[in-house]
């Protein structure tokens, strides 16, 4: 099959199948084309390394993980367009699957391993142990995923939205469109790098804006513990774009609830509890003194 031939997803790709209807993929099982090639493994490995570093940085900095399948799919198609032989769609699927594991592996590590340092037991672990824990966690996740793969892909066809998988599939299928998107992604990375460089190196504006720096709001900051903080880095804007307005709004609402309701409330309760403990402790000491 010609890898350069334009492909279109079947009409029933994203809807539930009717009684007795079968889904025929764009690459039928009887068709043999390049899939698990050295090219796909090399490009996938490079993508995995690059996006593992990026995902780890963003997760540790923002406390929010990212899924890397969409940008990797875009870059896979873009890189394919520059090669002498254009990669087949299955090769690009291989690249995406290999590279997209970066977000899963990083998520399992950066949200659990820092707990060892917080608990002060990092001296009981070695670099090999940390690597082995992350490796076994990833392997365990894959093993648990295998039994559910056929169920979610075949039995639940069209019943669940899978927005990221849908977007990734569209990118891989429309290879030419993906190549153009790779240029846009590269330009966005360049602009984001320049933007952060101006913040970090030239300090043209603060990376983190917070009302704690505003003098007239000292009472709210120190007594009420009500603080508004906003990160202005390019990573925040990119993360918001990837997860979409709906989920960004949910995260924003949760942050507002935490910082404007729970933090001031707990601070007030702690202050009231401390005052009560001091009051009753003082009365208890006086009672003991009087009895003496």
From the structure above, extract its key features.
292 residues, mainly alpha, 2 domains, two-stranded antiparallel ribbon, 9 helices, 2 strands, elongated, disordered N terminus
Tell me what the structure shows.
With 292 residues, the chain is an all-alpha fold. The protein folds into two domains: 38-200, no CATH class; 208-291. 67% of the residues lie in helices and 2% in strands. The chain has nine helices and two strands, in the order αααααααβαβα. The chain has helices spanning 38-62, 69-82, 89-110, 114-118, 127-155, 163-173, 175-200, 218-224, 234-291; strands spanning 208-210, 229-231. It has a two-stranded antiparallel ribbon. Helix 2 (69-82) runs antiparallel to helix 3. The chain starts with 37 loop residues before the first helix and ends with a helix.
Radius of gyration, CA atoms, in whole angstroms:
26 Å
| SSE run | HHHHHHHEHEH
Proportion of residues in β-strands = under 5%
Per DSSP E runs of 2 or more residues, the count of β-strands stands at 2
Number of helices: 9
Shape: elongated
Helix fraction, binned, reads 55-70%
Mean pLDDT: 78
Summed up, the domain count is 2
Which regions are unreliable across 5 or more consecutive residues at pLDDT < 50? 1-5
Counting helices, strands and paired strands, the structural category is mainly alpha
Strand arrangement, major sheet: 1-2
Distance between the termini: 99 Å
Q: Largest sheet at a glance? A: 2 strands, antiparallel
